[in-house]
Amino acid sequence: MSYLTLSLTLIFVLIPLILSRTLKLGLEKDTIIATVRSIIQLLAVGYVLQYVFETDNIIFILLMILLMIGAATQNARRKGTSIRGITWKLVITFIFIEVLTQSILLGLNIVPPTPQYIIPISGMVIGNSMVLGILFLNRFTAEVENLQDETELILTLGGTPKQAIHTQLITSIKASTIPTIESQKTIGLVQLPGMMSGQIIAGADPVQAVQFQLLILFILLTTAVVTSIMLGYLSYPTLFNQRMQFLKLRS
């Protein structure tokens, strides 16, 4: 695809701008900012990846992964500022899920240890973990706030912090993982995933594309469940003090 052809795709940006203007939705500014940022960020990443792929240096690969983790943490932490130490909890979660998935992929020789495989898969893993982290934090903080009285009642009756927060924790974990599980039920019937579609457009064998897509789907399933569970069990202890008294979320 040439830059001239790419410029023609801005028609798909013009359509929502016109609709927003006509219906007075007020989305013009955010749409323009999102478009400009996506162009700059993706082109910059494209050139960086081209250099990283050519050099094939482990240091550059690690730097790219750390950059992804840093950006994901910065974005997700905004949804959990009421939880003490949420930044480090997110960092630990993202690093753990990255190490877990790459250890399995590279340790079992499922994919070659090259930047062309490690970086894109890491991006999908960390990006999905970030989204799941945001979903979990949104639901968890809402559940904790809505059930404060029940939590304090359980503690008053002699329950442990884990027992007092159990319902909110399990509900939040399940709610944040449902979108991933449900989307996988209709893969191939309702939608063709991006990775598979991209490979097919690039001329890859459809069956080979399906195999790689299944790999990603299975990885993302693990990412969803592990992310929610880790964040949950790292977060709930900070809601209680050493005397097992419930501490309200920070405003």
What would a concise description of this structure say?
With 251 residues, the protein is an all-alpha fold.
What can you see in these coordinates?
The protein is mainly α and about 250 residues long. It has 2 domains: about 55 residues; about 180 residues, no CATH class. Helices cover about 75% and strands about 0% of the residues. It has 10 helices and no strands. Helix 4 runs antiparallel to helix 5, helix 4 runs parallel beside helix 6 and helix 8 packs antiparallel against helix 10. The longest helix is centred in the middle third of the chain and has 32 residues. The chain is globular and about 70 Å long. The mean pLDDT is about 85.
* Span between termini: 49 Å
Strand content: under 5%
Runs with pLDDT <50, length 5+? none
The helical percent reads over 70%
Q: What string gives the helices and strands in order? A: HHHHHHHHHH
User: Rough shape?
Assistant: globular
Radius of gyration: 21 Å
Summing up helix and strand content along with how strands pair, one would put the structural category as mainly alpha
Number of domains: 2
Number of helical runs? 10
- Average pLDDT figure: 85
Task: Summarize the main sheet.
Answer: none
What is the tally of beta strands? 0
